[in-house]
Amino acid sequence: MIPTISGGNTGRTRGDIDDQRKRLAYAMLQQGMDASPVQSTWQGAARLAQALMGGLAIRQADQEQKAAATQAPAVPTATPSTPPARSSGLLPSFSGGKRTVA
To answer: Could you give the dihedral angle defined by the CA atoms of residues 76, 66, 60 and 10, in that order, rounded to the nearest 10 degrees?
Structure first.
């Protein structure tokens, strides 16, 4: 079976999958940047393509990470919100907040 990096029902979080994709992209980039002599022009073309695809994958992962950061709430969810303004008595809270003076 071919290993994949999709997240379907594997128990992995989105961050784990993103980290694995980034590691794969860096490995592709590193293999493409290998400075050992090539045996043919096709091997050189393959290295160039591998480096380009690795760089593209890293760029896309960074853009997705930035997009997710901008969509995240500005205020952490653990901080309590400000309490509502207090009414001046017990009856105004039951009658819709309007107080009449008799």
So the answer is: 0
